[in-house]
Amino acid sequence: MSDSLIKVTDTAAESIEESLKQNIMLSTAEGIVNWARRSSLWPVAFGLACCAIEMIATAMPRYDIARFGAELFRPSPRQADLMIVAGTVTWKMAPPVRRIYLQMAEPRWVISMGSCATIGGPFAYGYSTLPGVNLIIPVDVYVPGCPPRPESLLQGLMLLQEKIKKTNFSGDRDRKYPTGDFSRYLPEDDPVRKDLESLFPPYIEAPDSAISRIAAT
Fold it and tell me: Could you give the CA distance from residue 122 to residue 131 in angstroms, rounded to a whole number?
């Protein structure tokens, strides 16, 4: 008989080939970097008003923001790459918020949580309230509500992760950057206006010693 009764196959080679098919994932460097970025967001730990209570609740076991890789609320902005602006931003508080943002690690991301941070909320058009945090820092995602529930913040976090997924490797994003022009809102000799303007490039006449050192370099 020309045909052999027993067929001998190299099972070892087949098992190795099958194992490779199941355990090798092909991707781009940009895709891997963006996967790591969106899966390990570190929010900076600070709150401004009542929205901060809802933000804190999001980190508790019932909602567990750790499921989305954003568990580590960092006490230092130099260890954080996500700012959640939770609450009313007054003009007096605007320079510290801008300073914290500038000290965060790149690429940094911003979620505006609640109507107060987004448009001033019930205090809109008041003399003491900033009419939108986007005047001092660029915002990636807006979460509506007064205050928004933890589920809304988690939805905003997922939208941000989808945005990070499609971000270029260089970190460039399609978002509006503030100009640093506050002439519409504050008089020319206002100390808050001078402080804010010093925190925008090229950091001219900076009243803060740390910012002055930046200007010197």
Answer: 11
